[in-house]
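Query structure, 237 tokens:
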């Protein structure tokens, strides 16, 4: 495997871990993900991961159901920690060392996050799993992922989704939608495409952090994305 990138930030949605059930953690999906991640790590790529918590709790929808927004977001941040612990356990079970860092101090559940500590873990060959979002309410895990990617000086942010890139419209709703091989941030804004929320997109644009949107559910796609294969997804730059 010839990697184009040395250090990556992999953003995964919590919902993707749920599999067909829609909630909780599907162990078959989890195992597929960690084997893909280990393959990339074994090739010499440094991997940091941010995973959402939507399979367990989503802050904004919680606010709609009666929780105040701050409490709902804090519950959502805790859900990301649960998913991060599951990822660490699954990675270590197949011989891939990993360490969880939390945005707020939750020792001994995870180490208190700092960019220096996360980079040190990456340099030692460990997967750095960055949990708890930004540690603040009103920020999505996409924004947390963008922030962490910039902080650890990642070469690229890989956004693993259920679709194989960015389309002119939602391909799950519009069969005529076509996929972009590459698209600029300015085009994303102009076309009103929802690659990520606006805060996350603006942060990546301002810091020249490229994003590759790809389908993580297809085994081998992560390795192809790291190799820079444009056929596997959409490059946003």
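Result returned for the query:
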């Amino acid at each position: 495997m010839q990697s184009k990138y040395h250090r990556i930030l992999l953003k995964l949605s919590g919902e993707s871990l749920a599999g067909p059930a829609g909630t909780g953690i599907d162990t078959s999906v989890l195992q597929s993900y960690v084997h893909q991640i280990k393959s990339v790590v074994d090739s010499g790529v440094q991997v940091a991961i941010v995973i959402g918590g939507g399979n367990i709790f989503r802050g904004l929808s919680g606010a709609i159901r009666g929780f105040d927004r701050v409490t709902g977001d804090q519950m959502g941040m805790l859900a990301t920690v649960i998913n991060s612990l599951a990822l660490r356990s699954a990675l270590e079970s197949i011989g891939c060392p990993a360490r969880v860092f939390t945005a707020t101090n939750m020792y001994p559940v995870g180490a208190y996050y700092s960019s220096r500590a996360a980079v040190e873990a990456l340099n030692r060959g460990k997967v750095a799993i960055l949990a708890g979002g930004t540690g603040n309410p009103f920020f999505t895990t996409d924004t947390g992922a963008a922030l962490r990617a910039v902080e650890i000086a990642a070469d690229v942010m890989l956004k693993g989704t259920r679709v194989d890139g960015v389309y002119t419209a939602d391909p799950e709703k519009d069969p005529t939608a076509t996929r972009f091989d590459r698209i600029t941030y300015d085009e994303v804004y102009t076309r009103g495409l929802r690659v990520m929320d606006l805060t996350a997109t603006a942060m990546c644009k301002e810091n020249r952090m490229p994003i590759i949107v790809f389908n993580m559910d297809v085994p081998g796609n992560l390795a192809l994305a790291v190799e820079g294969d444009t056929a596997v997804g959409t490059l946003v730059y």
